[in-house]
Amino acid sequence: MDIELSARHWWAFALRGVAAVIFGVLAFVWPGVTLTVLVLLWGAFALADGILALIAAFRVKHDHRWWLLLEGIVGIGAGIVTFVYPGLTALVLLYIIAVWALITGVLEIVAAIRLRKVIDNEWWLALSGIVSVLFGVVLLAAPGAGAVAVVWLIAIYAIVFGVVNLALALRLHGTGQRRRAVSAA
């Protein structure tokens, strides 16, 4: 990163930081709206990806075009279902995350058991597996609370990201001012 260029454009980092903090705060204030928006954005992506896969399927001339055609149809279908049933899409996505966490956790626990004679402190791997399993169980047992928790995690990330960018912007601004003062002297 060119420090002089970054120092001149410190305000861009500040704007990113402010936008991230605002998003994070809004996600805390309106977790349901945030979840719906995230689901609808995913639906828009699936729809656009499906349309582009269909276009590619009709433009290419090889055996894989049928896979592209199928991928396009599935993407368009997923996008449409997301817009018609956003709540169902959020729930299915949450269940996918829960199952992933359960499977990952169990595999980490198994790996820790198998590695206990090979490495020291394998219990860290087992502990991460237990945390993953517990996370998966909580999501399956209380999907509504799990969805809100996922939104809150995104909100926390956004706020921390925003504050770090604001700190960077202030640092870059100060660096730019010091460089200009040295150049003027």
List the helices and strands and how they pair.
Layout: H1 3-8, H2 10-29, H3 31-59, H4 65-84, H5 86-115, H6 123-141, H7 143-184
Helix pairs in contact: 2-3, 2-7, 3-4, 3-5, 3-7, 4-5, 5-6, 5-7, 6-7
Radius of gyration: 23 Å
State the major sheet.
none
Q: Could you report the average pLDDT, rounded to the nearest whole number?
A: 86
SS element count, helices: 7
Poorly predicted regions are none
Strand content: under 5%
Strand element count: 0
Proportion of helical residues: over 70%
Principal-axes shape call: extended
Distance between the amino and carboxyl termini: 26 Å
Structural class of the helices, strands and pairings?
Answer: mainly alpha
**SSE string:** HHHHHHH
Walk me through what this model shows.
With 185 residues, the protein is mainly α. It has seven helices and no strands. The chain has helices at 3-8, 10-29, 31-59, 65-84, 86-115, 123-141, 143-184. Helix 3 crosses helix 7, helix 5 (86-115) packs antiparallel against helix 6 (123-141) and helix 6 crosses helix 7. The radius of gyration is 23 Å and the shape is extended. It starts with a helix and ends with a helix. The model has no long low-confidence stretch (mean pLDDT 86).
Which characteristics define this entry?
185 residues, mainly alpha, 90% helix
Quick summary:
The protein has 185 residues and is mostly helical.
